[in-house]
Amino acid sequence: MNKNKQIFSSLTILYFLLGFVNIHLSSLALFCLVTPLVLLMKNRKNLWCSGICPRADYLSLFRFVNLGLRMPRWLVNLKAKNLVLTYVCFNLLLIGLSSFMVSQGKIAPIDKIRLFIFLQIPWDMPQMIHYHLYNPLLLHLSFRLYSLMLSSTILGTVLAILYKPRTWCVLCPVKTLSQRYLNQFS
To answer: DSSP per residue over the chain, as a string?
Structure first.
C-alpha cells in the first residue's frame, strides 16, 4: 500500500476517533458529503471514487481479512443501489428537518449515536474535550452526522468482511449519483 493510500485510509479511522475527542468535530463529515459533488460538477469525472475517497481506502484494509463469499446478484443490482441512495437521502432529509426543528427550539437535540437512524446506542459517548459553549444545533447536527457515517461504515465493513473489501463501493450513494450525473453527458 503506498503512502497516499495509508493517509486516506487513516482519515476514516481518525474521523471516528475525533468524535471521542469532541463530537462537534464530526461535523467534518459535511466535507465528505460535499467534496465529491463539487469535484464531480467541476471536472465531470468521478475523481472521488477513483482515488480520493477515504472510506474506500479504509475498506481496502480488509483485503486479507474477508471470507471471500460470492456476492449475491441482488446486492449489485439497481434496486439495491437505489435502496441505499434512498436511505442516505432520507437520513439527510431527517438530519436537515430535525436540525431546523432544533434551531427553532421545537425539539431537543439528539445527544446519542443512532445507528441506521433508529437504533440508539444506550450509553453516552465519552468526550475528551468539553466545550463550555453549548450550541444545541451543532450538537444535534454532529451526532446525526456521526451516526450516519458510523452506520454506513459498519455496513461497508460487514460487506468487506463477507465479500470483497470494496463491496460498499458498488452500493455507495456517491458513486450512484456520480454515475447518473455523468450519464447525462455521454
So the answer is: --HHHHHHHHHHHHHHHHHHH-GGGGGGHHHHHHHHHHHHHHHSS-TIIIII-HHHHHHHGGGGS---PPPPHHHHSHHHHHHHHHHHHHHHHHHHHHHHHHHTTSSPPP-S-EETTTEE-SSPPP-SS--SS--HHHHHHHHHHHHHHHHHHHHHHHHHHHS-TTHHHHH-HHHHHHHHHHHTT-
Cβ–Cβ < 8 Å for 162, 66: yes
Between CA 108 and CA 113, with CA 110 as vertex, the angle to 5 degrees is: 170
For all residues of the chain together, what is the average pLDDT?
Answer: 91
Alpha carbons within 13 angstroms on the beta-carbon side of residue 110 total 25
Q: Which of 87, 48, 46 has its CA nearest to residue 178? A: 46
Query: Using an 8 Å Cβ cutoff, are 95 and 141 in contact?
Result: yes
Segment 108-117 shows an average pLDDT of 95
pLDDT tens digits, residue range 117-153? 999 999 999 999 887 677 999 999 999 999 999 999 9
* Rounded Cα gap, residues 156 and 149, in angstroms: 10
All three cell numbers of 68, joined, read 471471500
C-alpha cell at 3: 503512502
